[in-house]
Amino acid sequence: MSFDRLREALAITHVLAIFRAKTSTYFVTAAQALADNGFRAVEFTMNSGGALDALRRLRDESPDLLAGMGTVITPQDAGDAVAAGAQFLVSPCTRVETLERARELGVPMIAGATTPTEVALAYDHGSELVKLFPSAVGPAYVRALREPLPHIDLVVTGGVTLDVIADFLEAGAVGVGLGTPLTGDALDTGDVASITERAKAALAKAAQAKDVR
Question: pLDDT tens for residues 75-89?
Answer without folding.
Answer: 999 999 999 999 999
